[in-house]
């Protein structure tokens, strides 16, 4: 595996290999010296064309715990609206003999585009591109689920909220499908569902009370504040009334259901504080597991032993 | 100069010709067909045995990029590419910089085209000033300068009221409006068809309704105002049936689609390939079948290349940031012949869609080999297999999703005004 661009290109075996590798890294997290020398001498660039706190920091920590050197670069997108300057930015960083770019970009397909044009020795990790994919987030989500429920073929998973604009949801659905999840549900008003969404292999609900019944996992998505302007929903208030996760709604799910959210959360918009801070909430564990999962992906993509053994994507 | 093309298979739909026949040209006109004029002695002879002899093709939509975008292409490079494609008349769009909304711009383009001398160029002027969709351009002046019609291309009009006024005013000046039916609010800056591909790739989609809703508004106005209108680049099956109904109702409308829309679908946008970025977008297989049936039954009476040459960098970006459009002049004829091979349409009707009918839509004297007409023709080897490559493309724009594709049928000679302007180099 040279590049890590989306979930769709993984098969069941590769996906579980990443999860298993991540599991082995969770122990590093608990040690007093939280470092392994796997990527010593490697240079990893966090190349972010869009603001991010937790994805960037967890990637940075993951890289540092693997003993790599890390460079953080935030590029204002206004300066790189043209593709040629995106490539120019890339080529100049590549000239510094860097090994890996972790890329976040507001446009769908940006990571694919960059992967097509970098030098053969450089790996690209997609840290979120437009509405297309956020594969590392999806992997840490299924990792979190697996820590609680081993057998995906028995699970009902509901993803609630702005599916239309969500790269996270797309990647989660792909990962859950690869793991043969029993049922994947999406729950949202029609305005926040992409056309033909059922073709992704999901059951569509527009009503929370029906959609949450008997599910084992609830994934809440962040509602961007600007969705009111686009006439997607009338108000945060009505959205919370219809789709917000409250203790009453959580009670519809199976008793040992877990609640997840890719963050950052909007309290009182998509999730109530009682639920977000409650015993079934895995929101902080997700962040913690994010480091181990990203260590797994970086080590598989970069470490010399794996190079050539895996497939080129 | 006297030129003769002998022994070729002449296909001239305007004159119901579909047989082996000789063509004789003198003083820039067709002097005779079949039998030579009295005391004929040619200066130049083309032996067209086993070749097709067609009227020079007429292209409804080519962006020549000059003035203002010479880094993409120039009038000289693109008219030379047209000649290599067997095209002897083309209509160019007002999307230059500055926009063609005044007679001075029209005159400049005509002058540069004449200097180049590879193809007849007809200018379609801007419908509104600066293509901004608010104030009407000086259409009478544009017409006097030689414009074949007016269009706002894919730039939105401010309101349906501006559309109404523009259609009315253009009809007062006897100018055909070339309109692109697209509801820009519904399109909402989308870059692909809203469907499986937009879902899978997370790209903003343009619903089919963005085309049909705009088309419905246009047709309602045309029914009330009775104004001559040509619809450019239809992409959906439903739009084709709406045009068919309008034509049954005797509304003064015509419509075309582009050659690539007859072959590509949204499924071809694999891995964010910017070369497949086009506006209006490639749609579903069902839509493509609808377009093909529309071409077959004549609802879509013309097929165009919709030529949009770009510099290489225009396609070197994430999909949404690439510039839409393809360099297509030189694939028009082989792809038209492919429609014939696939039994979508007869050879005679296929040729009509790229000669007689676009000429009628533009209201120009072209697209036929009648005695006394401009001696514009091309000679085509229908059996030659070749591969489209950056090297074979004459256009400065190398941006086409058909790069590397095998094509069948190749232009061997192009004659403009009785003089050879292109001859395929055989090596």
User: What is the overall pLDDT average of chain A?
Assistant: 91
Radius of gyration of chain A: 19 Å
Quote the beta fraction of chain B. 15-25%
Largest interface: A-B, 27 and 21 residues
| CATH superfamily grouping of chain B | Metal-dependent hydrolases
Distance between the termini of chain A: 6 Å
Largest sheet of chain A: 5 strands, parallel
Order of helices and strands of chain A: HEHEHEHEHEHEEHEHHEHH
Shape of chain A: globular
Beta-strand content estimate of chain A: 5-15%
Polypeptide structure, described:
The complex is a heterodimer of chains A (313) and B (427). Chain A has 313 residues and is an alpha/beta fold. Chain A is 37% helix and 14% strand. Chain A folds into 2 domains: 7-133 and 290-302, Aspartate/ornithine carbamoyltransferase (Rossmann fold, 3-Layer(aba) Sandwich); 135-286, Rossmann fold, CATH 3.40.50. In chain A, the strands form 2 sheets. Chain A has a 5-stranded parallel β-sheet. In chain A, strands 2-1-3-4 form a 4-stranded parallel β-sheet, with helices on both faces. The radius of gyration of chain A is 19 Å and the shape is globular. The model of chain B has no long low-confidence stretch (mean pLDDT 97). Chain B has one domain: Metal-dependent hydrolases (TIM Barrel, Alpha-Beta Barrel), CATH 3.20.20. Chain B is globular, with a radius of gyration of 21 Å. In chain B, strand 2 (17-26) and strand 3 (29-33) form a beta hairpin. With 427 residues, chain B is an alpha/beta fold. Helices cover 28% and strands 24% of the residues of chain B. In chain B, helix 4 packs across helix 7 (209-225) and helix 7 runs parallel beside helix 8 (237-248).
